[in-house]
């Protein structure tokens, strides 16, 4: 993952349900090395008078602010808190409006089951909120079936069919139990449709937009499973992919192209992961339910600033197709070793996020970066390494998830950037994104903004959860949100 020369990725793929896997080379000319835009921080937001802006470098919460009490007041720019709920959070936040018009929020209540039970004021599992009045979230349920109790990063909501899915996703709950809930009739009280051991080992996931296929990735388990959920009461696997180390998977609008955050596989005696990035696969035969459905490699792409690819969400801006890709974590040094990369390493690459042009899915290329000043090499060499939480192996000044309010001309995107909180960017000019707002409520040991945000643009709101303090609904200033969204 260290340079574009890794763009030609070899994927070990298994077609259909065949046992084993075979190595397949990418089609000739499927990907080419491309230049990247300069690795600069995205222009900083200009805050209105009602803001409580950061006191240091863009994205930083310095140790002196914890000592003085300033950090406890939080940092806001063109954003205000509407409500807060609970005491912990996880990796995903969703918003849904059911057939009766009820507005609901969903979020997983913890990052790893049993690791943060004490802080979960809202109880365990996936929390269900009635958001009829976003100023006063009302908890209506906790989903505590095996996968919902510990979904890790697999929680996913299909808006079209109103299906909420997750796979039990950590070492405490192997193998990966798949849970499916219906939220269409009454989103405040999801109805369990099935819970079956169909999800491999669990970790992350993806949903075809039509809601008929749920993809599960076992990440270090080296397997991906496509599950037919056309009848969610009787889901069943229809294709497997072996020998790959995929993270989040997202699908094109027609469900025929899969964009996988590819962690890559170990390279060299020190078990570094240095050949990851983006993997593009043709899953048309799975979408079409062919007799022998299979994953077919199309291309791969890497970038020099990469850390750990997390997910790549398709968006269309001004008629052109892009991926909103985000890398998680930092602190793995010049060679990102998941075993020995302990403590703060100033030379560690911080991938943050980027927009990737996929108009030609065989030749993707990075068009711009979404990153903060704290992610830059020069800043990492300074005093910020001593800030609370900065040396975390699984956090620090880095990103984790981004999301867009809609897939076509979203205008804005929001990213959870761990210690730096929720960051909002204007992407109407994809080549020149700019930061327009942020909201950060650090706990004494630092913030933990890990969750993919949810959106309610009509009311200028973003919802997200912080692992250290719970669920937040945040309202953006009118000057930030394109006028046609809320008028």
From TrEMBL:
Residues 33-59 are annotated as: Disordered. Residues 1-23 form the signal peptide. Keywords: Signal. SUPFAM superfamilies: YVTN repeat-like/Quinoprotein amine dehydrogenase. It comes from the Bacteria. InterPro entries: Quino_amine_DH_bsu, WD40/YVTN_repeat-like_dom_sf. The keyword Signal applies. This is Uncharacterized protein. The lineage of its organism: Bacteria, Bacillati, Actinomycetota, Actinomycetes, Propionibacteriales.
